[in-house]
């Protein structure tokens, strides 16, 4: 009888230990949507403008150019990011909540490196990345009709231009999903994407993408 009791106690202890280990090994699912508990909007408007801001892009001759932009919330999947003219077109770069968190982390690392004089300037316009993440790019000739879309790797980092550091958001050309659907009447890939921020510009952009701000704008519609 005592042997059976000991066996039962050992079995129970094993089950408790196993359950504890399984729970401790569970990973947190990626955050896909800050607004999952809110209803979808029944609107024709694809992009909700959060705040106007300025960024830097380069023109066709490679010269750094101050550019008017907007932080935006995309109503179709509720990702948020940046929308602006880009060379001869319009581009939107959209992030999930996890990528927004990664952007904040990368920017804090950049500030720390800046303040501690650890920024590397091997050569002008050499980019230094704090990591590889994922984002969506939308683009088109008109800002309200950006029919092209790609998803892929994006980089947060910095570069020096004319001896001044800029925080950067960059992506190599991304494959256009519309090309698979309708063929050569649309571009096969996006342009290489590079936008540049001063510290004040990036701080304004990050502030616009806080979960509280996104929820407030969504609920105002």
Structural class, by secondary structure, is alpha+beta
Net shape: globular
Order of the strands making up the biggest sheet = 1-2-3-4-5-6-7-8
Beta-strand percentage range? 25-35%
Which runs of at least 5 residues are low in confidence (pLDDT < 50)? 1-29
Main β sheet profile? 8 strands, antiparallel
Describe the structure concisely for a colleague:
By secondary structure, the chain is an alpha+beta fold.
How would you sum up this structure, described in words?
The chain has 5 helices and 8 strands, in the order αββββαβββαβαα. It has 221 residues and is α+β, with helices and mostly antiparallel strands. Strands 1-2-3-4-5-6-7-8 form an 8-stranded antiparallel sheet. The radius of gyration is 23 Å and the shape is globular. The relative contact order is 0.16.
Write out key terms for the chains shown:
single chain, globular, eight-stranded antiparallel sheet, alpha+beta, 221 residues, disordered N terminus
């Amino acid at each position: 009888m005592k042997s059976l009791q000991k066996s039962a106690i050992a079995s129970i202890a094993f089950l408790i230990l196993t359950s504890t280990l399984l729970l401790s090994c569970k990973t947190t699912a990626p955050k896909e949507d800050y607004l999952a508990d809110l209803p979808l909007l029944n609107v024709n408007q694809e992009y909700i403008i959060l705040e106007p801001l300025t960024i830097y892009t380069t023109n066709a001759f490679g010269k750094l150019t101050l550019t008017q932009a907007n932080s935006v919330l995309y109503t179709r999947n509720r990702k948020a990011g940046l929308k602006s003219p880009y060379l001869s077109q319009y581009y939107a770069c959209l992030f999930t909540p996890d990528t927004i968190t990664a952007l904040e982390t990368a920017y804090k690392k950049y500030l720390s490196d800046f303040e501690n004089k650890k920024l590397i300037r091997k050569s002008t316009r050499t980019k230094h990345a704090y990591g590889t993440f994922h984002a969506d790019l939308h683009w088109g000739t008109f800002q309200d009709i950006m029919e092209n879309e790609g998803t892929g790797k994006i980089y947060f980092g910095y570069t020096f231009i004319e001896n001044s550091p800029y925080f950067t958001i960059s992506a190599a050309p991304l494959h256009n999903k519309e090309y698979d659907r309708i063929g050569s009447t649309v571009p096969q890939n996006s342009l290489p994407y590079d936008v540049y921020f001063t510290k004040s510009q990036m701080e304004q952009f990050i502030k616009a993408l806080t979960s509280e701000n996104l929820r407030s704008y969504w609920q105002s519609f």
